[in-house]
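cron nightly-structures :: item 1 of 1
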Amino acid sequence: MEYKDYYKILGVARTATEKELKQAFRKLAQQYHPDKNPGDNAAEAKFKEINEAYTVLSDAEKRSQYDRFGSQWEQQGRGGPTGGPAGGGYRNISPEEFEQIFGRMGGRGGAGGYGGAGQGGFSDFFETLFGGRNGPSSGGTRQRAGYGFGPEGVEPEPIEVAVQITLEEAFNGTSRVLQVERNRVEANIPRGVKTGSKVRMKGVAGSGDIVLRVEVLPHPRFERDGDNLTVKLPVDLYTAVLGGEVEVPTLDRAVILNIPGGTGNGKAFRLRGLGMPHLRTPEERGDLRAVVEILLPGDLSAKERTLFEELRALRK
């Protein structure tokens, strides 16, 4: 199984700060986002890899565990020598220690519930490292969450699992496969969830309820405020001055907006009902705020420059 160097994937140093990680993620996510690379499977795979790397390194606990045991996990999986590489300062961990660290994280409150962008999920390396000792090859069966009680009819404590999703997944709704004890559970995440939302499901095979704690990842183009979205709208100088039609992107389709003549830079247009769906009433949506960003022409020809000078003279 391939070892994942998450720092190399994001192109940052191992000492990278939270701000540097976020900047690197935003830049790469914008470059490889599926919306900007339709039909490009390689770009989609890269986007998932970037998302997976940010999932781990942006979480202090997971980053610490990855830094401490990630390389050793790779070596142990290959049956490396007990002492680790000469002078490397590593050691192999025992099966008991592996289960204590990674099994615990996958069992309660760990990263076992994370999934990648789209339907492909995260890599086997991620699932094995954070999804429990057996990882993705566990012999457990996939089930949909139902209702269950622990021994003697007492309901166990709920299991809280952190889940990261993209803004598109929050818009459309999505699902994740979780490793709960020896079972794999398919969890449905409804439309309209936001960072901090908690989705509660009934337990499986004697486990307590499962609570998904949702985090919606930053989007390279849209900014979210509750159920409202904001997007920058590039408008050429001539349309801004004379007026005209501009295509505005949304999360499900493009719409045409009529720009009046004399529109200034930073002017905001509110498009009602084109934001995020409301969590409890998904048929209703927030608004989309399109902020004009005027694009100035560059590399003027001699004739164009002359015409602009004439316009300036007229304005005086």
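cron nightly-structures :: done
The longest strand covers residues 228-236.
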